[in-house]
Amino acid sequence: MKLDKYTLIAELENFLTKHKVAMKNGFYVVPSEKLIREFPGQILPHPNHNKAKNPAKTLICNFSNDEILYASLKEIDERIDIWATFMGISGFDFSARKGDDEKNQDLYLYLNKMLDAYVAFHGVRIFPNFRTGGKTTSMNILNLYPPHSWFIAGTLGCANGHIFENEVLLKQKLLFTRPAGLAIYGILRDEYKTILDESGVQYRVYRDFQNTSREDSQKRRMSETIPASKISASMPL
């Protein structure tokens, strides 16, 4: 699905302005009562929401490639009706492409926060995304939320070639936000785990759906019943 982000931004701006949604640091804000402040029991991507064990304790995540995220916008209002029956959703996660300049990074963050505000306006709770972007918005974007808010990151296991830079950025974010809780969707590298342990922040790691479903399939195969002929042949007389 090809979608003009500038047209989308204009439409969201018109809606949020018309309904007098508050702004801070140049971004639309999710009301504090719509922010999630507890760990979910399960995290699932939207295409797998029907796998939820308990929707009221299940967070729908937006950590996916942009093509899937753009597809979700085609039916955003229908999805809001579904998300309203769940614990909530993680903050939107459209990301700049490699090599994009700072202004383009900031534009994607602006889009993410508008979508968060739009969804929250319609009654869906938001688990704030720990993503930052260009230098202009790195800390401003985290300052949108009350002190000691909860955040979700997905994932702290990527960007293999920028470990040191990510370590520094993670430390800065933790010092700036002092989060009450941090949920991590995906792999947590040892380097980042050490930082989190030393920071004292309570955090919880959730394996991504693709890996957990693969592991579950392997366990089911291993626990399949052994044919009766093999059992009888191996039983002692």
Layout of helices and strands, plus pairs?
Layout: H1 5-18, E1 23-24, E2 27-28, E3 42-45, E4 58-61, H2 66-73, H3 76-83, E5 88-90, H4 102-121, E6 126-127, E7 150-153, H5 163-177, E8 181-185, H6 190-199, E9 203-206, H7 209-222, H8 228-234
Parallel strand pairs: 3-4, 4-5, 5-6, 7-8, 8-9
Antiparallel strand pairs: 1-2
Any overview of this molecule?
It contains 8 helices and 9 strands. By secondary structure, the protein is an alpha/beta fold. The strands form 3 sheets. The chain has a 4-stranded parallel sheet. A 3-stranded parallel sheet has the order 7-8-9, with no helix packed on it.
- The geometry reads as globular
Describe the strand arrangement of the main beta sheet, using strand numbers. 3-4-5-6
Question: Order of helices and strands, N to C?
Answer: HEEEEHHEHEEHEHEHH
The percent range for helix content is 40-55%
The number of helical segments is 8
- Report on the biggest sheet: 4 strands, parallel
Specify the oligomeric state: single chain
Q: Unreliable runs, pLDDT <50, ≥5 residues?
A: 225-237
Distance between the termini: 66 Å
Strand percent estimate: 5-15%
Mean pLDDT: 83
Q: What class do helices, strands and sheet pairing give?
A: alpha/beta
- Number-wise, the strands total 9
